[in-house]
Amino acid sequence: MLLGGIRYLLPVIEAAHKQGYYVITADYLPDNIAHKYSDEYVNVSIIDKEAVLKVAQERQINGIMSFGVDPGVVSASYVQNMMGLPSFGPFESVEILQNKDKFRDFLARHGFNVPQAKGFGSIDDAMSESYWFPWPIIVKPTDSAGSKGVSRVDKKEDLRPALEYAMKHSLSRHVIVEEFIEKTGCSSDTDSFSIDGKLVFVSFNAQRFDEKATNPYTPAAYSWPSTYSREQEEYLTAEIQRLITLLGMKTVVYNIETRIGTNGKPYIMELTPRGGGNRLCEMLRYATGVDMITAITRAMVGDPIDEISQNSYDGHWAEIILHADKDGIFDNLEIGSSLHAQVIEKDLWVKRGDSVESFEGANNAIGTLVLKFNTAQELEKAITHQNDWLRVVIQ
Known about the structure:
- The protein is an alpha+beta fold.
- It folds into three domains: 2-85, Rossmann fold, CATH 3.40.50; 116-179, Dna Ligase, domain 1; 188-394, D-amino Acid Aminotransferase, Chain A, domain 1 (2-Layer Sandwich), CATH 3.30.470.
- 28% of the residues lie in helices and 26% in strands.
- It is built from eleven helices and 19 strands.
- It has helices at 10-18, 49-59, 73-83, 91-98, 100-109, 123-128, 159-168, 230-247, 280-288, 292-299, 376-384; strands at 2-3, 24-27, 40-43, 117-120, 137-141, 151-153, 175-179, 188-195, 198-201, 206-209, 219-224, 252-260, 266-272, 316-322, 328-335, 342-348, 355-356, 367-373, 390-394.
- Strands 10-11-14-18-16 form a five-stranded antiparallel β-sheet.
- The relative contact order is 0.12.
């Protein structure tokens, strides 16, 4: 059973069908694209863990996960543990990883580098405790995905609107206010894999943003390799291993966000037991040949998986998250001849005449470009000067 119905589930469904598995997709939106490719659809709220458990028991499923769908991770873990299915790890650990407030507290208690942070259940509580906030701060929901509801605040006068924005996007009506860690180079947001609690594949990338987007904190592109040094990657790898060992995690694909602060400290910003959105596992399959999608699909039903090794990158890779800079009607996508890269894949999700929205969250993306470059210099030039060769035409 796969919780959710977004397009990022399509390669998971394909991998499952190649293994001969019967696939059930579940959420409360019957028109979601993944349901057209699964063998069965169940209408249930994926954040209602008891309702998901009831459906899972009725269907006598062999495995469950939420891939690329953050709201379903807790319910998937609950069902795994209640039914004795292959699991990410202890349910209590997954709850910690899925709640930004609990996660920050866990990191602090165990000696990890962590920004100063506190969660709040009301806007008034957050406003009344603003005396300690180390400006600038980041305000975000404790339980949303796709960068929805996230904003940076530089002064107290702008705090209340940011809290209202975050609260609107929180399923549990809780927000977290945390110290904004100014970064050196690019942050990283990419996927990794553990088998029986041991990291067997770790990746870091360069996470890019569109400063002109409606929400400039929504990732707009990624590139591999990262901008980190070898020493920084080794330190973060050791800290990620320490974290998943403390939590008792098992065989899992993780989406992990990290950054290097201007203070020189590496930080684990988020670690969640699911494949990331934005096709990150697919990108890593292109770049390294490591197929984490098939591996986690097999692991979640208890079948043995092929060996996963720490392969190096075959060249320099980038993924562009196509998006509109304003609400309107999509006309076309223009890719200029000045782009010095192989266009490995152009995946456009809209057609001429479709309505599109400005880029506020990952759900506003309209497609992806997968690019391979010969050199790091060509990649950097293309990705930092997208306006020279890429145009999303909106009427």
